Amino acid sequence: MTTRTPPTWRSTTDDIAIHIGVLGSFSLRVQGQDVSLPAGAQRLVAMLVVRGRIGRSRLAGMLWPQATEHRALASLRTGIWRTNQAACGLVLSDHGTVRLGLEPHVDLQRLVERSRLVLDGQDPPDDDGWEQGTLAGELLEDWDDEWLEPERERLRQLRLHVMDAEARRLTRLGRYGLALDLALTALQADRLRESAHRLVVEIHLAEGNVSEARRSYEACRDLLEAELGIRPSQGLADLVERAVPPEPAGIDRELAGIG
User: Fold this and answer.
1) 107-258 — its CATH code?
2) Stated pTM of the model
3) What is the pLDDT of residues 87-134, one digit of tens each?
4) Fewer C-beta neighbours within 10 Å, C or N terminus of the chain?
5) Residue 244 CB neighbours (<10 A)
6) Domain coordinates of the chain in residue numbers?
C-alpha cells in the first residue's frame, strides 16, 4: 500500500498558496479558495499570526480562559486538527510549543514590514494597496477578545507614526496637498496628539500659508486646554511665533489694514 504524502503549500511572491487576513475580519485562503474555519480554529490561527510561537499550555489558557487546563488543551488539539484539515501543516506543534508553518502570506506582517521601511526613511512600496492598507482595517475588528487590545494599540501607534513620516516626506517633495491630507487623517485618528497638530502647522508654514498655520495652532491650543487643561509645548508655540507675527487686535487691526 502506497502512503500518500500530503501536499506542502508555501507562499511566494509569484504564487501565494496560503493567505491569512486579520486586518478587518478574519480570512483564510488556500490555493485561491476561501476556507471556512470554526471560531476556535480561527482564534488559534489569529493568535499565532499576531504573537508568533507560543507554549501549548499558555496558548490554551489564553484562547480558552474559562476552561480547565485539561479542557483547554483538548480544545487546542481539536483546533490544530481542524486547521490542518483545511491547510495541512499550517499549524505545527512540537517541543511543547505551537507555531505557524507553510510560510503563509499575512496582511498584518506585510503592513508591518512596509511600515518599517517608511519609518527607516525609505520610499513606501509602489503598489495600489499600500495606502489603503495603512489607513484602514482594525485588527480583527469584530472580535472582543481581551488579548487583542494591546495588539490593536500597537498597530494604531505604528500607523500614526507611519502617517507622520510619510506626510513629512511628501512635504519635503513639495507635495503639500497630499501631505496635509495625510496629516489631517492622523490628527482625526487622535485629535489630542500634539505631534499631529505640529505636523499640520509645519506643512502650512512650508507652503507659506501663515494664517492657516496660526489658525491650526490656536485650534490645538484651545483643544488641549479644554480637554486636558494644558497648553501646547513651548517648542510648538515658539515655532508659530517665529514664523507668524501676532495679529493686531480691535481697531489696530483695521488701521494696520489701512496702512
Assistant:
1) 1.25.40.10
2) 0.77
3) 999 999 998 999 999 899 999 998 888 888 888 887 766 654 555 555
4) N
5) 18
6) 18-106, 107-258
The letter for the amino acid at 127 is D
Query: Are both 18-106 and 107-258 of the same fold?
Result: no
Digit-coded pLDDT (tens) for 44-66: 999 999 999 999 999 999 999 99
CA distance 185 to 136: 11
Give the fold, CATH level 3, of 18-106: Arc Repressor Mutant, subunit A (1.10.10)
Helical H segments across the chain, by residue range: 39-51, 56-63, 69-86, 107-119, 129-135, 148-172, 176-189, 194-207, 210-228, 234-243, 250-258
What are the backbone angles phi and psi of residue 20, rounded to the nearest 5°?
A: -115, 130
**Whose CA is closest to 22, among 139, 103, 114, 109?**
139
**Strands 27-30 and 18-21: what pairing?**
antiparallel
Q: Which cell is 184 given?
A: 489631517
> Strands of 54-55's sheet, edge to edge?
54-55, 97-100, 91-94
